[in-house]
Amino acid sequence: MIDINNIAELVENLKKKINTYHGKFAENEMLVRYAVVDPLLRALGWELDNPEQVIPEYKTERGRADYALFIKEKNPHGPVAFIEVKAWRKLDDEALRQTATYAVDEGVNYIVITDGDQWALYDMYKNIPLKDKKVLSWSLLDDDPFEVTFKALSIANTRKFGIKPSEPLFTIVPKPEMEETKPKETKEAFTRKTVQKLILEILANSGKPLTRKEIVEQVREHVKLTEKDLEPVKSGLPRWEANVRWVLTGLAKGGLIESQGKNKWIITEKGRAFLGGKQEKNNTEP
């Protein structure tokens, strides 16, 4: 089963691995495949030891693709995608053109190129210039782990390969209760009401003003997100983050939190009373 939070945690670990061993990865393409690409593909539901799903060093008329991925529901007659891996920081236009040529010769719909850090997915069936065929790209080093997770789901072993998932595939599972000094985990779904309470708990226990970014990051640590939560909204933010920021604005307007300096927030006495159930529910909820 594909688990969003497990993928995000893996991305964090892979980022540390790349930062630690980038020198070795720059010299050894196979090490990139073994240490970075293989773990991510497994997390995305690919059984690397199952030739019905993955064949390494797949032979084409003009060369070998590093990986050929198979999904019978999408293409019963051959691979649905080729993956080309290069050593760290060795990605170039030639790698893209080479892999695109393999795909065109074999009638393969998608190609993925990566150096372990940078990833890019291309739809070869689009009748447009090659550079414009890019569907998604992401960086393990530079992008937020949940943003990477959302984008990487486009190459997961599902019938939705090649597109951004749009239907919930994952359920929210509550984490164990945290220590007393930290916000308690809720068993409720990821709703604005739940986020409102969590933000107040985070600020009540922080002991110092927190920036909006710090609050958003801490909220993320205390909830499990569904695939739908990770979908982007019009602003480009994931749905869950947009909701957290909206709730923050509502809490400020209601006087439950207040600004301390530039973009730093604390809980007010009114917020503490609200959190403790000492006042009736008001109209502060967005």
Structure description:
By secondary structure, the protein is an alpha+beta fold. It folds into 2 domains: 152 residues, tt1808, chain A (Alpha-Beta Complex), CATH 3.90.1570.30; 121 residues, Arc Repressor Mutant, subunit A (Orthogonal Bundle). The protein is built from 8 helices and 9 strands. The strands form 2 sheets. The protein has a 6-stranded mixed beta sheet with strand order 1-2-3-4-5-6, with helices on both faces. Strands 7-9-8 form a 3-stranded antiparallel beta sheet. Helix 3 links the parallel strand 3 and strand 4. Helix 1 packs antiparallel against helix 2 and helix 1 crosses helix 4. The chain is elongated. The C terminus is likely disordered. This is Restriction system protein Mrr-like N-terminal domain-containing protein. InterPro entries: HSDR_N (IPR029464), Mrr-like_N_dom (IPR025745), WH-like_DNA-bd_sf (IPR036388).
List the helices and strands and how they pair.
Layout: H1 4-27, H2 29-43, E1 54-59, E2 64-69, E3 81-85, H3 93-106, E4 110-114, E5 118-123, E6 134-139, H4 145-152, H5 192-206, E7 210-211, H6 212-221, H7 239-253, E8 257-259, E9 264-267, H8 269-275
Parallel strand pairs: 3-4
Antiparallel strand pairs: 1-2, 2-3, 4-5, 5-6, 7-9, 8-9
Helix pairs in contact: 1-2, 1-4, 5-7, 6-7
Domain Restriction system protein Mrr-like N-terminal: 197-275
InterPro entries: HSDR_N, Mrr-like_N_dom, WH-like_DNA-bd_sf
Domain Type I restriction enzyme R protein N-terminal: 33-126
